[in-house]
Amino acid sequence: MNSKSNIGLIGLAVMGENLALNMERNGWQVSVWNRTTEVVDNFINGRAKGKNIVGCESLEDFTTTLETPRIVMMMVRAGNAVDEVIEKIVPYLSEGDILIDGGNSYFKDTERRVKDMYASGFYFVGAGVSGGEEGALNGPSIMPGGAAEAWPRIKPILQSIAAKANGTPCCEWVGPGGSGHFVKMIHNGIEYGDMQLISEAYFLLKHLQGMGNAEMGDIFARWNEGKLKSYLIEITGHILLHKDVTGAYLLDRILDVAGQKGTGKWSVINALELSIPLELIATAVFERYLSSEKLLRMIAAKTYPRKKPEVVSNKEELIEEIHQTLYAAKLVSYAQGFGVLKKASETYDWKLNLATIARLWRAGCIIRSTFLDDIAYAFEQDSNLENLLLASHFSKEIQEALPYWKKLVATAAHEEISSPAFSSALNYFYSLTTDRLPANLIQAQRDYFGAHTFERVDEEPGKFFHENWTGHGGNTKSGTYNA
Ligand SMILES: NC(=O)C1=CN([C@@H]2O[C@H](COP(=O)(O)OP(=O)(O)OC[C@H]3O[C@@H](n4cnc5c(N)ncnc54)[C@H](OP(=O)(O)O)[C@@H]3O)[C@@H](O)[C@H]2O)C=CC1
Ligand SMILES: O=C(CO)[C@H](O)[C@H](O)COP(=O)(O)O
């Protein structure tokens, strides 16, 4: 063992423990500390036994075991816990030390922490980490942002432990302030969207064909060999085939109430703040809320009993419809997610490189997929691309999928099977590709009842008019602004 550790890790739950083992495996000596010290003992005497990992009982001891300037990574519960740990460790730190928050922190908290820590002489980095337990151990995707001065020092460690896509580490500097955590937040929002879409595909296979788990598992395995190839499709195939100790399919025994820890909701709140459509992810978040209203749904199901859906006669055609719809709707979701990243980059002056971000997600993380290579390529060809659906490769894919997509959404609606994200994506696509939407009527209504003014198609943009619609209204206008 060296006299001093290269890095310190705080928080030994599933992510911290596995990241510490990953760092050690890659040649770094790691000191570890956890609020509940029993957890440290269990780790040191268990999975860390015989490894170059130093367990510490107190934060003071922990900081003395680290080479200086120190690098400390926190993997603790997001929120107040991060501030509590910072407050406790700062008295033992020296100027120039680096604190990395690898949890799912809210990016506005990270913005604040980066500023506060600068003022105290420390470098703070908000690094999104994705990949769950297995990624943390074998190579996650890492999205660091914040105090750029820290990057040359932390880069060798973080890039060594990150997943590699074609030999390139899925860890690159994202930008200043809270940008790393913002990118991770949108990653998770997209994760929500992907999971909702996959769940709808499963639901339609099950109810429009009465298919069993084994057959569906095979379909997902087949899809994982084509353009949908991704971690979430792969694990869905495994989940469908998994049996519990009684020999029954476990999936069928899991309560249909989805949990959430906040990153999907934050993605939607921030899309609203930035005025960028993120309907598919919003649908995924709201569907999780609706799923948790189990009792209400049970009552409503009795109030509105449904007929059993008609089995679709051509099984192979239905499978292809679902396959194409899943792809097209996923593309819409990524187009919306990257739209939010683009607007955030402009608004906060982060200068995000969208191609680099797509490349960071190619391996290690939960949304990893071959599809991200095509997204990276699209942004490399045109870094100002307004919307992914306008990239030539994707417009061809959408044109191929559209006949299947609209047929499936219509069938699901007709057979009274909920497929909210599939239809949200289709409606977004139709609105996006409509050059004259019915928003003229909304403007007329706003002006009619509140003198909110409107622009005219036969006048220059930016000139606002008010009509005396009833003949007895005045000429006084409301202010023209958008919030
Ligand atoms: N689980 C996952 O798949 C992923 C999680 N993340 C993020 O990584 C972070 C760690 O996640 P995970 O490993 O799942 O564990 P948890 O989110 O459950 O966090 C548990 C850890 O936080 C510590 N902790 C909680 N409150 C405090 C506090 N007030 N002061 C000090 N330490 C505290 C716990 O210490 P103690 O043992 O004393 O309770 C424990 O070490 C979270 O931000 C999470 O969102 C990111 C990617 C994937
Ligand atoms: O960050 C992650 C993966 O990248 C977590 O797995 C994710 O937070 C799970 O989110 P939720 O509990 O909200 O479904």
UniProtKB/TrEMBL annotation:
Gene (name only): gnd
PANTHER family the UniProt entry points to: 6-PHOSPHOGLUCONATE DEHYDROGENASE
Coiled coil: none
Metabolic or biological pathway, per its Swiss-Prot or TrEMBL entry: Carbohydrate degradation; pentose phosphate pathway; D-ribulose 5-phosphate from D-glucose 6-phosphate (oxidative stage): step 3/3
Broad EC category: oxidoreductase
Entry protein name: 6-phosphogluconate dehydrogenase, decarboxylating
InterPro entries in alphabetical order: 6-PGluconate_DH-like_C_sf (IPR008927), 6PGD_dom2 (IPR013328), 6PGDH_C (IPR006114), 6PGDH_Gnd/GntZ (IPR006113), 6PGDH_NADP-bd (IPR006115), 6PGdom_BS (IPR006184), NAD(P)-bd_dom_sf (IPR036291), Pgluconate_DH (IPR006183)
A GO molecular-function descriptor: phosphogluconate dehydrogenase (decarboxylating) activity
Active site location: 184, 191
Lineage: Bacteria, Pseudomonadati, Bacteroidota, Bacteroidia, Bacteroidales
Enzyme Commission no: 1.1.1.44
Binding annotation for NADP(+): 11-16, 34-36, 76-78, 104
Function: Catalyzes the oxidative decarboxylation of 6-phosphogluconate to ribulose 5-phosphate and CO(2), with concomitant reduction of NADP to NADPH.
Zinc-finger as UniProt keyword: no
